[in-house]
Amino acid sequence: MSEAGVRFRNVTRLFGTTRALGTVSFDIPLGQNTALLGPSGCGKSTALRLLAGLDAPDEGEVSVGDIRLSDPGRILVPPHRRQLAMVFQDLALWPEMTVLDNIVLGLASSGLLTREERQGRAVQTLALCKIGSLQRRRPNELSGGQQQRVALARAIAVRPKFLLLDEPFSGLDLPLKISLLEDIGALARNEGMSVILVTHEPLEALSLCSRAVVLESGAVIEHGAWSEIFK
Ligand code: ADP
Ligand code: MG
Q1: For site-directed labelling of 60, which of 23, 75, 179, 228 has its Cα 20 to 30 A away?
Q2: pLDDT tens, position by position, 88-118
Q3: C-alpha of residue 44 to centroid of ligand 2, in Å
Q4: pTM of full prediction above 0.85
């Protein structure tokens, strides 16, 4: 496994009496796109939130490379220091702001760039996501697919090592979804990002990812490259 990969070791997350994840262990290597695949309620979003640093496990360890990100009940590295970015199911765009300002403000919270650099990076990233012409619109003036590209642009503008996608493409028809996933695959290759895609649709997972962690009722039932999973 790559040195800098994600590692879950014996991770448990309970919500009251619900075992969202039960003693789960898996690795996600850097440099390969990986799907977290399984039916609704199996624990995919819980796992992604633990990785993003929005939540801490009850038991076990989450780490990237040599760096421990969280311990039981404790977030050791906060989300903005994890070199990852996330696109949520509901996109969470800021409705009162233009597309451009959505991206610029996303960058501001990373604290990495000067004001001019943020503006330049935002324009460049919108072009990469093929929505350069929509800069001055507001989210409610966009189609669903365009909104998804804005959310994607906001996430990749910080040039994260890991791009976390929590089923953001439900609601798109299949051809649109496949073309977006192909664009994301090309972006990830060119920018050196590894995608972690949460989905319940094997077709989505297959079109972007070379490997998967398959979850069922809070447990990992398979993980590895597709060839290992289909065996
Ligand atoms: P998935 O993303 O695979 O649909 P989740 O990780 O969201 O599944 O949820 C796994 C289980 O944990 C579900 O039974 C869900 O109802 C429960 N769960 C998740 N988050 C919470 C929460 N904040 N409070 C209570 N139960 C939760
Ligand atoms: Mg979910």
Answers
A1: 228
A2: 888 889 999 999 999 999 888 777 788 899 9
A3: 6
A4: yes
- How many Cα atoms sit within 13 Å of 175 on the Cβ side? 0
Q: Which amino acid is at 190?
A: N
- Distance CA(181)–CA(118), nearest Å, equals 26
CA of 20 to the centre of ligand 2 (A): 11
Band the pLDDT of 1: cuts 50, 70, 90.
very low
Identify residue 38 by its one-letter amino acid code: G
Mutate to test the pocket of ligand 1, among 45, 170, 197, 200 (most ligand atoms within 8 A of CB): 45
Tell me what the pLDDT averaged over the chain comes to.
92
Backbone angles phi and psi of 230, in degrees to 5: -80, -10
**Beta strands 211-216 and 194-199, pairing class:** unpaired
Contact in structure between 152 and 172 (CB atoms under 8 Å): no
Q: What is the DSSP string of 26-54?
A: EEE-TTS-EEEE-STTSSHHHHHHHHHTS
Phi-psi region of 60 (alpha: psi -120 to 50; beta: other; left: phi over 0): left
Tell me how long the chain is: 231
